[in-house]
Amino acid sequence: MELKGKKIGIAMSGSFCTFDKIFKEMEHLAEAGAEIYPIFSDAAKMIKSRFGTPEEYRERAEKIAGRTPVTSIEGAEPIGPKGYLDLLAIVPCTGNTAAKLANGITDSPVLMASKAHLRNNKPLVIFISTNDGLGMNLKNIGLLLNTKNIYFVPFGQDDWEKKPNSLVAHADRLLPTLEMALDHKQIQPLLECV
Questions:
Q1: What does the alpha-carbon distance between residue 54 and residue 184 come to, in Å, rounded to a whole number?
Q2: Which residues, in sequence order, are CB contacts of 83 under 8 Å at separation 6+?
Q3: CB–CB of 92/129 below 8 Å?
C-alpha cells in the first residue's frame, strides 16, 4: 500500500545512536506524501547525549513533520479514542520500551501512544535497537513478534564481535515495512545481516 496521504505516528524512544538515520527516513516518508505525527518518549525529550540535544531532536522532527511532537502521556492518550493514525511506528524501539510494551506497562508517551493505537486494531511497527536483544530482551521480542497487529522492521546483529547480544533494525527497510504493515503483512526476510 502506498504511503501518500497516510497518517503515520513516529514514536521515538532513546536509542540516540540511530536518530540521524531515523530523521533521514522521516524525510523520505514526508517526501512520499505521508502525514507524520512525531511522539517522543521521556528519554527522547529530556536526555542530552553525544549524539545531540532534546531541543535539536524536537526542532528536527517538527521541521520534517510540520507539527509539534507529542511529549506527554496526556497528549498521546487521544490517539486511541480519536483513531486518527493509520499506522504507528516505534522508531527506534529500545529494549526498555520493548520490555514494557510486551508486559503491558504504559508509563511514557510512546507506550501510551502504542497502547492507544493498538486498541483500534491498526498496525504498530517496531524498529528494534537494543544492546540486549539476544539476551534478557529476547523473550520480550518473541512476545511482540507473536502479537496481533505488531510488525518488525528487519533486523540483525550490528556488532557481533564486541556486542554479541545487540540487535538493530535496518533503516533502509523502514518504508517498505510500513507499506506492508498497512496491508497487515510482515515484510520478509525478517532477520538480515547488518
A1: 33
A2: 120, 122
A3: yes
The tens-digit pLDDT sequence of the chain (194 residues) is 799 999 999 999 988 889 999 999 999 999 999 999 999 999 999 989 999 998 999 999 999 999 999 999 999 999 999 999 999 999 999 999 999 999 999 999 999 999 999 999 999 999 999 999 999 999 999 999 999 999 999 999 988 899 999 999 999 999 999 999 999 999 999 998 75
The 3-class SS string of the chain reads CCCCCCEEEEEECCCHHHHHHHHHHHHHHHHCCCEEEEEECHHHHHCCECCECHHHHHHHHHHHHCCCCECCHHHHCCHHHHCCCCEEEEEEECHHHHHHHHCCCCCCHHHHHHHHHHCCCCCEEEEEEECCCCCCCHHHHHHHHCCCCEEECCEEECCCCCCCCCEEECHHHHHHHHHHHHCCCCCCCCECCC
Whole-structure pTM value: 0.96
d(CA 59, CA 54): 9
Measure the CA–CA gap between 185 and 151, rounded to whole angstroms: 8
Q: What angle do CA 162, 166, 168 make, to 5 degrees?
A: 125
Describe the crossing of helices 95-102 and 109-118 by its angle, rounded to 10 degrees: 40
